[in-house]
Structures are given as C-alpha cells and as structure tokens.
C-alpha cells in the first residue's frame, strides 16, 4: 500500500535529528528555546515543526543544524522542517509545561533566571518581536504582541528588564510588551554578540551600539 509506504517515509524523515540538545543548560540552547516557544509548533508532545518565510531561510537552516535535522522542505514562500524525537521532546515539554496548543496555553518560564532568561528573551524577540526606530529619533523600541495567554510570561520579561510588570492586554485582546529604553536594548544586543547568539540581523541592525 503506497499510503503506508509514504507514511513510513515521512516518519523516517521526521526522526532524523536530535532534540536532546534542547535540554542543555547554556545560552545558545536557551536562545533557540525562546525562538521555538515563539515560532515553533509541537504536535502531540512528540513532534516539533518550524516554518519560516524564505527571507529568514538562513535562520531556519541554523536551527536545523542545531537540531541535526537532515531534511529541510522548501516551498516558494517558506521553508520548514519536522522532527519526531519522542523522549527528548516530551521531556522538553514537561520542563516548560508546554501543552498541545502552546499559542493559546502559554508555557511556564518562571524557573528560568539570569543569563539563560536573557538568552531565551532574545530568541523570543527573534520569533515574535519587532525592533524599530522611534518616531523622529535614533533610539529604538521593541514591540512584542502575542496571544493574551502569554501575558504572565511577558511580565516576567518586563519585571526582569523594566523592574515592573508593564505588559498589558490591548483593545484587540492581545498581550503586548513595549520596551523603549535604548540602554536595555543595547545591553541585549551586546549580550548576544558576546555570547555569539545567532540573532536575526534584520531585527537587531537598528540598534546602534556606538
């Protein structure tokens, strides 16, 4: 039966990788964890899928290499990969309390502290954030908008970097966090450079370190 052959072929492709690295405790790992929490999809707690626009194809290739995924599927407007690595992904989900629909049911990052939280935040920004120039100023502002379920997590970031829980629910019902303090954004960029985090250059180039 060709349907069974096709299914087995796809399962084989998905298994070719190593998600155990997501359980490591280092800055690079936590950068990618932040990015996956923002832009990845975990199906049934065992299958990780990431898809990015082709303008960020180089970035998904970096994540593909980090997870040792062999196959990247390329389409006219986006690229994606899937990996089914049951035990590591289940442990990863347990560690961060990730549920099936992580967009509407936020994970738990309350145990992450210090440099690891900073790395996770930078990865999350690359997934869900926007860094732009402030009106008629050279200073930048960071804008994050996501599902309302993520309000508590955004306030973890806010409390860490702004000293108060300043994330809020906007009129459209989304959770928002804005950081307009250029000193904080420069410190995040400097941290990323020092720790060689593979940030999305198109997002961070607006922050001038001079």
How would you describe the overall organization of this protein?
By secondary structure, this protein is α+β, with helices and mostly antiparallel strands. Helix content is about 45%, strand content about 20%. The protein has 8 helices and 8 strands, in the order H-H-E-E-H-E-E-H-H-E-E-H-E-E-H-H. The protein has a 4-stranded antiparallel β-sheet. The longest helix has 15 residues, at about 115-130. It starts with a helix and ends in a 6-residue tail after the last helix. The relative contact order is 0.15. Residues about 5-15 have low confidence and may be disordered.
Entry summary:
With about 210 residues, this protein is α+β, with helices and mostly antiparallel strands. It contains eight helices and eight strands, in the order ααββαββααββαββαα. The radius of gyration is 18 Å and the shape is globular.
List keywords for this structure.
single chain; 210 residues; 8 helices; 44% helix; 19% strand
Major sheet: 4 strands, antiparallel
Question: Residue-averaged pLDDT, rounded?
Answer: 89
Shape: globular
Strand order of the biggest β-sheet: 1-2-4-3
By DSSP (H or I, 4+ residues per run), the number of helices equals 8
Terminal-residue CA separation: 63 Å
Number of beta-strand segments: 8
Radius of gyration using CA atoms only:
18 Å
Strand content: 15-25%
Give the SSE order as H and E letters: HHEEHEEHHEEHEEHH
Q: What structural class do the secondary elements suggest? A: alpha+beta
Q: What is the percent of helical residues?
A: 40-55%
Low-confidence stretches: 5-14
